[in-house]
Amino acid sequence: MRGQGLFARILIAAAVVALAVGASLVSGQGARLDDALAPPQQVSAASTTVTLYPLRDSYIDSDFPTANYGSEWFVAVGLHEPGRILRALVQFDVSSIPSNATIESAWLRLRVCTGCSGADNPINLRRITAYWDEYVHWSNRPPCAGSYDTTTVRCSSAGQWVSWYATNMVREWVEGTSPNYGMMLWSLQEEGAANDKCFYSRQSGSQPRLEITYSLPTATPTRTPTRTRTATPTETHGPKATYTPTITRRVTHTPTDTATRTHTATRTPTRTPTRTPTGQSTTLRVYFPILMKE
Question: What is the arithmetic mean of pLDDT over 235-262?
Answer without folding.
Answer: 48
